[in-house]
Here is the input.
Amino acid sequence: MPTPYLTLAQVEMIAREAHRTQTDKAGRPYAEHLAAVAGGVRDRGGSEAQIAAAWLHDAVEDDALSRQWLDEAPLPREVKEMVLAVTKRDGEDLVAYTGRILATPGALLIKESDLAHNADPDRLAVLEPATRTRLTEKYAQVRGLLGLPGGGVASERRDQANPGSG
Here is the structure.
């Protein structure tokens, strides 16, 4: 008999515990970001699998949980695939990263919610101006590469490369 999957409440508890000692760039408990991303996925009509992946979206990237933990966790394959899709890899460029997100069913919604929370003006307002500017530009570039509204530089480049589109 196969092992039952973790419930959404269990995934939330694991994620909160894994990131317990971490804070975000503004010094806030990292679990607040995880809750906001999971809530954003829920509010955008995401599935239970997408919400679970949202809770875990930074766990492997931040070394809060190991890749081995994720591989062995009693989670649906689609949850694991979405988590890995939004996990940045060392030395990976943004085109490869965003391409993987777009190629993985369900992952775009998680990244959209993550970007929305990261770019929240209230969160950005507490950062140093140079950091705020750098992150705002980065988030706009990622949004552009993903084809999301509010994309900046990347969508302009795509339009220049494809003058008849748009």
Remarks:
- Residues 154-166 have pLDDT under 50 and may be disordered.
